[in-house]
Amino acid sequence: MCFFEHKTNKLQDPWSIEDVQNIRPDLDDDQSVDVLISVANAFDANNGINWYVLEYHAEQLFPEPEVINYG
Q1: Which pLDDT score is estimated for 49?
Q2: Domain ranges, ordered by start, for the chain
């Protein structure tokens, strides 16, 4: 997923709404964009961006409803 962009001499690590929806298929495109924006705004180079970071921000913005098990 990570690659070096020779034109800009920068390391690129792109994440997309499809990545967000891979872990949270219940989110629509706009919600997934909100998750990516939240991740970008809180970016910490010590932690980077990974599946857990995406999942954390998705849960903070759009908590999944609790499932009550009556069985």
Answers
A1: 93
A2: 15-61
